[in-house]
Every structure is written in C-alpha cells, then in structure tokens.
Amino acid sequence: MAVDPRSEGYRRRLYRRYLWIALIPFTFFVILGGVSILLSQNIVIRELSSLKERNLRQVADNLELWFGEADSIALSLSTDPELSRGAEYLLKTGIPSHEDLKLSKSLQSLLASAVNSRLYLHSVTVATDNSLGLILTSTEGLIREDQYPDADWTKGVKAHAAEITPWTLVRSYHPLPNFPLSFPILSFYRNILGTGTLEKKGVLAVNVDIRKLDSLLEKEAESAGGTYILVDRTSGKPIAGAKLGDRADEVASYLLAGLADPPAVRKLKPLSLGKENYLVASLASERFPFAYFLLSPSEEFRRIPRRVTWIGGLLAALALAVGGALAVALARRNFRLLDGILDMVDAAGRGVALPAFHSSRNEAFDYVSLAVLKTFVEHDYYKIRLSERELRQRTLELTALQAQMNPHFLFNTMTTIAFKAMQLAGGRNDVSDMVKELSEMLAYGLADAKMPATLSGEFAQARRYIAIQRRRFGPSFRCVWKEDKALSGLPCIKLILQPLVENAFEHGFGGEKKGRIQASSRRDEKTGLVVLEVEDDGKGMSPERLAEVRKLLAEGAESAAHVGLVNTGRRLNLAYGEAASCEVESQTGEGTKITLRFPDKIPENLGAVSRDEGLG
Hints:
Blueprint: H1 8-78, H2 81-93, H3 98-116, E1 121-128, E2 134-137, E3 141-144, E4 167-173, E5 183-193, E6 200-209, H4 210-224, E7 227-232, E8 237-241, H5 248-257, E9 269-273, E10 276-284, E11 290-297, H6 298-350, H7 364-424, H8 429-445, E12 453-454, H9 455-473, E13 477-482, E14 491-492, H10 498-509, E15 515-523, E16 530-536, H11 543-555, H12 563-576, E17 581-587, E18 591-598, H13 604-611
Parallel strand pairs: 13-15
Antiparallel strand pairs: 1-2, 1-6, 2-3, 4-5, 5-6, 7-8, 7-11, 9-10, 10-11, 12-14, 15-16, 16-18, 17-18
C-alpha cells in the first residue's frame, strides 16, 4: 500500500526512526560512561588508599630514624669503655678529689653532647651497682637517685637484668618534686656490659620526649588530611598522636588486631569514633615494638567518587538532550529536502515551470565531490608535501644535533681551563696552549654545519681535545691513534669522533682519569663501509646499563648521561640512513668499545635540501 510522504503518520514514523538512530550511539556512551564512573570510583579509592599508605610510610620512616638514632646512642654509650669504667668508678666513690670532679664533668659533657644535637631527645641516664645511691645524668651530672626528678626511671630494670638486647618503656617524667606536673617520655634501655665480657655493670636509658613526637605527627597530619597514632605493641597502649580519651586502649587494641593480616591482603580498616567514621592505614615497625596508624575521614574517600558520579549523570542527561535535538533537526532537514523533490515532481506532472530548488549544504552530490577532492589531496598532493616536509625536518634535526655538540663540550673545556689557570696563577705556558687548542676546536665546531668534514679533520679535532685534557691530568692516561692514512681525505659528517673520545674519557675512567684510549679508522673489506672505533680500558658498564644504552641508541632518545654517544648515533642515521650503525660493547671492569660504520659518501639529497631550507 502506497504511503503519502506528506502525511502526519509517515512523518511521525520518520521522526521516531531518526530518534532511535540518533539515540543508539548516545545510549552506548551513557552505558560506557556509567561503567567508566564505576571504574573511576575504584581507581580513586585505590589511589587515595595508596597515597595514605605512602604518607604513613614517610612518617614512619621519620620516626624510625629518630628511634634508630636513640637506640644507636644507647648502644654506643653502653659499649663505650671510657663511659663504663668512669661511671662505675664515680658512682661507687662519689667525687672525693678534684680529678674526680673533672671526670664527672667530662662524662656529663659526653652524655649532654649526644642529647643537645637532637631536639627530640630529653636526657640520658646511667646507673651502676653502688651503695651511695648515685646516678649520672646528662641534665644534672652526678646526683643521688632519690633527688633526681625522674626517680622511678629504673622501675622494671631488674626484669631485664640478664638481657643484652635493648627494650623500651613509656613512662611519665616529673620535672618538679612534690608537684603534680608531668609529661610522657619514651625510654630506650640497654644494659652496660663489662669490656670484653658479658658481665652486667649497670643500665643506661636514652629518653625521647614524646611531646616532640606529638608535634611531628600533628604537623604531618595537616598535609595528610588525617590523624596519626603511634602505638606500643608490647603494652597495647597509644604513645603519641591523636588523643583518644577514654577509648584509647580499646581503639589501640582494635587497630593492633588488624596487623595480624598479611600485608598482601591488608586493606584500609574502618573505624568509628563517635559520629566520625575513618579508614585506617596501618604499618608495623620491623625493628621496634611499635605500630603506626593513619586515620583518614571516610568522607574524603567518597567526596571525589560522588562528584564524578554527579558530573557523569549531568553529562549523560546532556547527551540525551543533544541526541534528541539532533534527531529532530535531522528529520526536519530531510523533510525540507523531501518537500522540495515532491514539489518538483508535482510541477513536472502539471506541466508548469519547475520551482527553484535550494540544495542542502550536506547534499549527497556535495559530499561525493568533497570526498573525491579529499581522496586526491590525501593520495597525491598531500603525500608529496609530506615527503618534502619530512626530508626538511630530517635535515633540520641533523643540523640541530650537530650544533648541540658545541656548547656541550664548551662547558667542559672552560671548566678545564679555569682549573688550570688557578694552578698556574698567572703564567702562560700550558694555559696559553690550551686556549689555542680550544680556539681551534671552536673554529672547527662552529664552521658551516652543512659542509662535510674529513676523517683527518675529525682525528685532528679529537687530538686537540686529548691535548687539553693531558695538560690538565698529565701523563696519567694514554691515547693511541691508529688512523688509516688512505681514508684521511674521505668526507664525513662533522663531530663524530671527538664526542666518542670525550665519552670514553669521562665515563670510562670516572674520577680517576687513568687508563688507555685507542681511536682507529679502517675500511671493512667485506662491506666496504668505513669503520671508526674508540676503545677504552676503563670501568666499563654493567649488563643492565649496557642494555639501557643500546635501547637509547635504537630509539634515538635523549640522554643527559650519554649526550655525545646518542647524538652521534642519531646524526649518523639521519645522514646515511640504514646503511650506518653505532654499536656499543662493554664489560664491567674491562672497558667499553664504540664502533661506527657508515658509507664513504654522504647522500647528495642531504646537502641539496639544506641549501634550499630557507625557501620553506
């Protein structure tokens, strides 16, 4: 049955058809966007978790450094024969003479110097078996134990009397007798052993001011967006960090229970404190009986995913609206085109003049014409222009790389001249000769980069470099030249030998500048290629470093450590194409060998394009 194209029913069906066609890809993008939102949420949570763990690791490393220093001080002092014998003598005899007073001041100064250079340390206390009830401290010197503000510091020491390993204890320090004022300290204990024996002579404590730990954790918490807690795994009590009030022991026990999971499956642990919910990153110390925790508000982990979801929903709604609008616009455009065609058919059927036809900008004929023109441009003219541009680009890169070698060596040479000038203190001799060599090198390097050099010129440039270095370091290294005179006049690109000699000198010998360098030229009888070799007997490269350098050469990547070698390889490939190669051989402790291979003629198109470059 024939359908009237002008009827409302046909137009509604056409509207729906265009609407479905327009909405299908947008529906796909909406689904894809939803999946992306879910994936992004997981990624955000994972990245935030990783960030919190890194923050916790950084803070733990800082605290471990402090604790390690405190334990190291305790170890060094407890094994110091001078401190052990002096403290044992003074604590048994008191200070009966002037010499004993000097000894007391000396030992107090020894303890105080260990404390004063570290702001987080509070004091060092030493006690030995004595009948006078004396102790030696970094703050009070020689004093009776019952008169020392920290009189209970030896509580629990007897339980560790037979140990040679350290132990820690969190306790309160009362600075003023008979006054209810105190602050917490963390003590690192070690038994003092006799020289050359395991006989216990006394006990030593290095005391860490926990207020300093609180200050560090509070400062780091501001940047981490959370709260840090340091917990003693032995006692199960918090040491420093967030103040948990009456729930301190309960929270510490809950956090320590999470450390039982293996690190591979350990995740952020949820924690509720009143109305606040947290996710906790945990880390156990491998050296000390401590555990570190970072409490981050759960809202921080939901904020970004919620925002991403909101933006994604807004974009999805916008996509649907745009799809519907495009469907309506597409249908109306085709209706206008269809009406114009039908008007022409009606006019032809009535035998009257045809109405004017206003073609659409997206008419099929216009599209086909543009497609044909585009195909011609892409497959013919555009390819020709692309080839010309690529050739000019290769030439420009070659010139830039060749010019890059000059300032790189200029810096090293000027450093050498300055060093030598300071030695000579105004004399001419070597300095004037070095300046002359440098002038010749600069004149050679700054000459027209588009003009080819010769192998003899390359060897002369390398000899000038060695002459300058020899005046700096003397005859501590040898350089052997094996130049094939038959190849002396052979044209080549500039600055391909001297950078390799410099590379061997700088990287082969390191800071010693002692060894042997050999530079040679020859022709490969099988391939007819020119072969340049630079070999040294320096420190060589590890297999991993050799593989990395070969990868840089293969990719032509930038390298700050081997700029001369990598640039030489890139310039060879740009100038000679696949016929040229740069090879590196090296073994650790045996030296390095660089081999260049290239034809005996520079391609003519290189110079031709270089001369015409200004026309681009």
